[in-house]
Amino acid sequence: MKNISTFQAIFLAVFGVLALGGIFIFSTYSGSSKSKDLIGNVVVWGVLPSVQMNEALDTIKRQNQQLKGVSYISKPQATFETDLSKAIASGQGPDLILVSQNELTSLNKEIIPIPYTALPKRNFLDTFADAAHIYLGPNGVLGIPIAIDPMVLYYNRTMLSSAGIVDPPSTWDAFSGLVPRIAQITNSKNISRALVAFGAYNNVHDAQGILSTLFLQAGVPLVTRSERGGYTVSLGIGNGSGGVKGSIISPGVSVLRFYTEFADPTKVSYTWNRTLPNSRQEFLAGNLALYPGYASEANFITQANPNLSFGVALMPQLATARFKTVYARVYALIIPRGSKNAKGALRTASALSSIANEKIIINKVGFAPSLRSLLAISPQNPIKSVAYTSAIMSHAWLSPSSVTTDKIFSSLIQNIIIGRLSISQALIETKQLIIAALQ
């Protein structure tokens, strides 16, 4: 038997104290201030806004004095990996980090997994939503999920109703047929009103989430862990040469052909191009009928334009799909290498992932919960109800860092719409870029 590491020993000891009677700590821990187990000072670095997270922490700390030493510092996502590595190297690193799965591969060497001997995989699977299972690593749990931010479809009620459209489309097949009823395009192909911002990348807000959703719905896993702990990249390229095997279009080619046709002036589905303003700003201005975005954006949209009449629906699916899915960002608390208070960090993660505290956090940041027990109760608020349903069906993939993936996907779409590469050639190049980024 291999010698157990110091951190594994800490985890085992802590779980031995907290997981009384075999009850799974992360779904039941109450964080009672009567506990004799002091947490101490725990510094949390995260990519979520400091205002909302600190408001949530203040509320939680008023109810649990054991967490009074917990502090949260927001860091820019673009430099998070670099900032963390430098801090750890100088001995000034945080005790916990709060990121989404988008940063898992880039931070892999900085993560201390919780061994399965301390946190059994079966308990994790039974407690957290399917999308959270991406935190199950080859040697243990990589992070404790506390929130899910799924993709949803925002729609302009006024624009749809004025065109005689009762409900937003529930399938992608219906999109092209709606373009002539919504879009306003001049003879010179200038667009003053659009149906949806598809086809370009840099001016499409949340384009990474949109493409991820389309790929996952088409059965393209993008990146998964291999049995040996590495990564397997699959972009649905078919036979890997022409993108078409026999007479059947490969799923990856099908996804990109559908997406880019909305920016092709020769197609009836033409409704967007790369010269237009940012898609979220166009939606707020009332010039865009459908806006796929994250559930957490609802509060921003409401505040940014209180006069905008909009609704929220589930993301459309393939008409032939046997199973529904949507992409989501899953946020989790991770113990990084160099944590000065690993025991307190673990207790903090367990406390913040409790039912009561997760409720407080998701209400502040506008996310859906990660706990199955909370997702089972649908909220009366229609926007939250859509977010909860979307979170239940959501999935994720092991992308390179968000910044790197944006660059890769931007190049992918750009190469297709300017005709530099065929769709299958662009996919092959993209696969190579993702493999290189993961290495």
Summarize the structure in words:
The protein is of the alpha/beta class. The chain has 2 domains: 6-148 and 329-391, Periplasmic binding protein-like II (D-Maltodextrin-Binding Protein, domain 2); 150-327 and 398-438, Periplasmic binding protein-like II (D-Maltodextrin-Binding Protein, domain 2, 3-Layer(aba) Sandwich), CATH 3.40.190.10. It is built from 17 helices and 14 strands. The protein has helices at residues 6-18, 25-28, 50-63, 80-89, 121-127, 157-162, 175-182, 207-217, 251-260, 279-284, 298-304, 342-352, 355-365, 372-375, 382-393, 402-417, 423-438, and strands at residues 42-46, 70-74, 96-100, 144-156, 184-185, 191-196, 222-225, 231-234, 244-245, 248-249, 288-294, 310-313, 326-334, 394-395. Strands 1, 2, 3, 4, 5, 6, 11, 12, 13 and 14 form a 10-stranded mixed β-sheet that branches. Helix 1 packs across helix 12 (342-352), helix 3 (50-63) runs antiparallel to helix 13 (355-365) and helix 16 (402-417) runs antiparallel to helix 17 (423-438). The radius of gyration is 23 Å and the shape is globular. The relative contact order is 0.19. The model is unreliable at 12-36 and 240-247 (pLDDT under 50).
